[in-house]
Design goal:
Layout lengths: L6 E5 L3 H13 L3 E5 L2 H10 L4 E5 L12 H12 L8 E6 L5 H9 L4 E4 L9 H21 L6 E4 L5 E4 L8 E8 L2 E6 L2 E6 H16 L5 E2 L10 H15 L3 H5 E3 L4 E4 L6 E3 L1 H4 L3 H8 L1
Parallel strand pairs: 1-2, 1-3, 3-4, 4-5, 8-14
Antiparallel strand pairs: 6-7, 8-9, 9-10, 11-13, 12-13
GO molecular function, one term: transcription cis-regulatory region binding
Protein name: Response regulator receiver protein
Keywords: DNA-binding, Phosphoprotein, Transcription, Transcription regulation, Two-component regulatory system
Length: 290
């Protein structure tokens, strides 16, 4: 299932400017999270796959510290070093725009664009920069897929035209089995068997149930009884297990709204289950059948 909204992160320690930028992003119909320090930004980047980041270069290392330009450049380096599947576009924001060396350095170190503060409402506005960035990245994704021999396109290109994108982009086939094997439970993704601990299997099962019953909607981890304590640790372990056994699955198909809720972005008819084996997980089976 294609996600319905772009997801943005704003890293800015000026509350007034932060509110202005968030209003602009929300007016575009995008979801937005915010951070006022490098520490907060890195925590969000760990849990959420963002489409783009607006990054103020002069930020503090953590709350209560003084902002410094080098902290922003360090965070930029961390962002652009993320794996391609997780690497968001980056628009650098700086009040030092008249010093072109900062802008050139940001571009050299991987930023996609920069805008000067205060914004002038024209080409330097966040809205214009965001639209240009997303159009450019959409075109790059389309061209990258088109270069793969035998690929079939199915991307939305600039201007909203729908294009074929590649059979590999289709949703995965998920089959919940749940048989215990060496204290672990099994499932299949695209025919490949995976083994997860019982807790992680049931957590993944909850996400699958929610995808079938409420497509496109996020599930709050507070509603998952198996992990009422240690939710972050459980998610991180599930993510690690999936990444080791099916590389790229988590980043491609699981979304985080930035507020502790997750969504398995797979159509309900791509999720099947073995009713006999799943009887060992009674509540999950009841929800799958309902």
């Amino acid at each position: 299932m294609a996600r319905t909204k772009q997801v943005a992160l704003v890293v800015e320690d000026d509350p007034t400017l932060l509110d202005l930028i968030k209003e602009t992003i929300e007016s575009l119909g995008h979801e937005v999270s915010s951070a006022s320090s490098q520490e907060n930004a890195l925590a969000l980047l760990e849990d959420t796959m963002f489409d783009y980041v607006l990054l103020d270069l002069k930020i503090p290392l953590r709350e209560g510290r003084l902002p410094r330009l080098e902290i922003g450049f360090t965070l930029l380096e961390r962002i652009v070093s993320l794996p391609d599947a997780r690497r968001p576009g980056v628009i650098v924001m700086t009040a030092h725009g008249d010093d072109h060396e900062y802008c050139r350095r940001a571009l050299r170190e991987g930023a996609d664009d920069f805008i000067k503060k205060p914004f002038d409402g024209g080409k330097e506005s966040p809205e214009a920069a965001i639209k240009q960035l997303l159009a450019r990245r959409s075109e790059e994704r389309y061209e990258a897929v088109a270069d793969v021999p035998g690929s079939v396109a199915r991307e939305r290109g600039p201007g909203g035209a729908t294009r074929e994108a590649g059979a590999e982009q289709g949703p995965p086939a998920i089959h919940l089995i749940g048989t215990y094997d060496r204290r672990r439970c099994n499932l299949e993704i695209n025919g490949k068997e995976l083994l997860l601990s019982e807790q992680r299997f049931r957590l993944f099962g909850r996400l699958a149930v929610h995808a079938k019953r409420a497509p496109g909607q996020h599930l709050s981890l507070l509603d998952v009884p198996e992990i009422q304590s240690g939710t972050r640790q459980a998610l991180n372990r599930l993510r690690k297990d999936l990444e080791e056994q099916v590389p790229g699955f988590w980043d491609r198909w699981i979304r985080n709204d930035g507020h502790g809720s997750y969504c398995l972005q797979v159509p309900g008819d791509s999720i099947t289950y073995d009713a006999d084996s799943m009887a060992a997980h009674g509540e999950l089976l009841v929800k799958l059948r309902s």
